[in-house]
Amino acid sequence: MKLYPLFYDTLTDVQEAIPITWGVPWKKGDLKDSSDVVLENDKDQQLEIQSKNLAFWPDGSVKWSKYSANIPYQSLKDLTLTIQNTPLELKKSTFITEESNGWQVRAGSLTCFIPKNGEDWIQHISIDQVKLIEKGTLILALEEQHQINGGNWTRQKVGYSKINDVSIEENGQLKSMIKLSGVHQVDGKEIVPFILRVYFYHEQRFVRYVHTFYIDEHLTDKLRIKGIGTKFSSVLTGKTYNKHISVATETGWYNEASQLLLSRKYRRHQSYAAQINGKVVKENKENQEVINQATKNAIWDHYQLLQLNENQYQVLKSTGRTSRYIRTIIGDRARGGVFISGENGGVLFSLKDFWQKHPSSINVKNLSKDKNDCLVWFWSNQANAMNLEHYTDQTHVESAYEGFDELRATATGIANTSEGAISLFTEQPTNKELDFYLHMHQNYHLLHCDPEYYEETKACGSFSAPKWEHPVEVKLEKALDNAITFYLNEIEQRNWYGFWDYGDIMHSYDTVRHQWLYDVGGYAWQNTELVPNLWLWFSFMRKPSEQLFTVAEAMTRHTSEVDQYHLGKYQGFGSRHNVNHWGCGCKEARISMASLHKYYYYLTGDERVEETIHEVKDIDQKIDELPPMREFYDKKGELTPIRVGPDWAAFLSNWIYQWEKNQSTNYQRYIQNTIKDVQDAPYQLLSGPVFYYQKDNRKLIHMEDGTLGDYHMVIAFGAPQIWLELDTMLEDETWRKMVADFGAFYHLTDEEMKERTNGKLQKSMFAWPMFATGLTAYAAWYYQDESLAAKAWEILLKDPLFDLKIQEIDSWKTILESENISTNGMSQWCINVMMCLKLIRNHLPNSEVQESDKQ
């Protein structure tokens, strides 16, 4: 198969090799083991490749595999991956070795030591036998808030990491990773747990790290996080005037030195120009007087790159002789990189999504000294302390579309993940070299397959690759593209950025204020309501692009961290949409189910997302703690009322992942047994839609038919995609017929529904027929029913989202808007169109019919 790179054309004239990890799906039966492949460039040369099985088909063949390789940048556009039983053997090399007090890493010319416990997560890093980093420690700043005599009083205190556990999660010959976990210690108190993954790549000069922290019960309205990040101590030797700093601006690098070779007498000397260009200046007869004059200059010891919002950054500096900082430059969006150097080399510190996840900063202290510190703040300590309170102390269920009349708006248990890197140099890099490493750390250089290949494997969900053959299909493809473009523009136009918000989009629009309903209960942030994650990932695999990957990656990071609970009483559940991401009283399994996040994991092999998916595998065992239908039905002993969808569908999603990833027969049995329970109900998938769930036996028990919980709730949260995924895995005719019958039934008349169910079911229970068009297409495919296919296309083509109207409005600013836009509707319309193009493309109406229908 041909492989294609993302983010390739952004850089030019690059000679270095770039480490890439990517995932590949396979047809059932094609691949026995992930190692049975070869990676070749355009010269038919085999490249070394590291492999891992990620998921399996029921017959034991590989469904998804992960590969890592160091690939010359210029070869990225001409790669093929081929099944072959005699792949190139990896060179034998020792990457990570265990010692009594830690782990020694030797990744080519880069060496690093990670201790097994203590305060530091890095003890030292060297490149070409030159030690440039001698310490890495996580840092946590807290702010206590008190009210005394009517006034507000705050006190800040700082703590550092305490490492409790260190383990190797991957020890390959091209890529390895060490996982550390622990807590922060502040005033002797253990607070804010963390997980830190540290990545190493053979023959690469950088270390990448992925940091996750959790909001725990110790944080309160009176004790807040003021700053969180990591502190590096570097060893940069030499003269004060040879201590340089370069800051990545929007497009270039701003350069300064700790002590400028600029004086009243010498303002344009070539030594000064060389210094500002980062060159090491050696004293000689020509510049001795220049240097003598410069030694009387101020020494700038401290620097800050500070991004407090998405539209402005500042670079500040201080002599350290007073507390005063002065501003050097100001700009819009810094790229999140700071390079500092001395005569022995330099270090580039970079933070991914620097401006997108503001407030962030990179601070340098004691630049003039031989030992200095760089503090990479994921949440800058220069910003206000985190305020994770809910926006109100009451619920607004009826007026503002909130969930239950229960105030469960707690942030305790949510998490946030940040990514950074340290690149080491013994010689001054050019700006192009700095650009290369910064770009590599800011963007995921994924290799992806052809859309046709993704579709053919049947491992990626129910969608089709674009064909652009039929006139109506061309219009549909343009409508799908317009939907993505609209939201990409909205993210920018509405500034949907910030540490706790980046990756999410809004739910509903207010045409009166020309603003999204950001402040109205459940109409605000979308979270994972109506599965926008699936919409974006299916869209990416149909039409891979850098922009689409970036927004889908950000959504996955956000929804798997902020919208999901990772510890505490709600662990494994997610929060329904709200003004605060964690604000809704509904904590449900559907919001955190595996399907939402697994495609990112399968495409990238990301271990943190894998971890978040693993957390929800047995969420059905906690369902009696938060019965999803508790407003309408009481528990009956050990029986908990749940819905066929989205509750059981979410369980299926989690079980499918465990079955395919770990070949777990237990989870396979849970799937098959509960399907049999539904099959035995009077109307199978149409029964209920509420069943009793017996968690100990993982059994669904028929309650009655026509229960509360409308059928659009069954299908709006990913159930159709999960059911069709089971179709490819089970290949069970009974299951296929059950799914097809559900899709066909949805569009019957009221009289037909009542007649077929003895009056139990009626049309009023089957709202939002557009949500069911994908299943209707499945029914049309299964029964070869042209009338059902025509019905599905009629609904989709008459929907206003098919012809999205965007207009320019002069309001509080000039705004591009679409009236009555709904992310719920957009997400579902796009997903269902993709399903229909796969299942009933050959039943598309002609364009003339379409135009007359629209009129």
TrEMBL record:
Domain PcRGLX/YetA-like N-terminal RIFT barrel: 18-81
Domain annotation PcRGLX/YetA-like central beta-sandwich: ranges: 96-435
Signal peptide feature range: none
PcRGLX/YetA-like C-terminal alpha/alpha toroid domain sequence ranges: 446-844
Protein's name in the database: Uncharacterized protein
Annotated organism of origin: Gracilibacillus kekensis
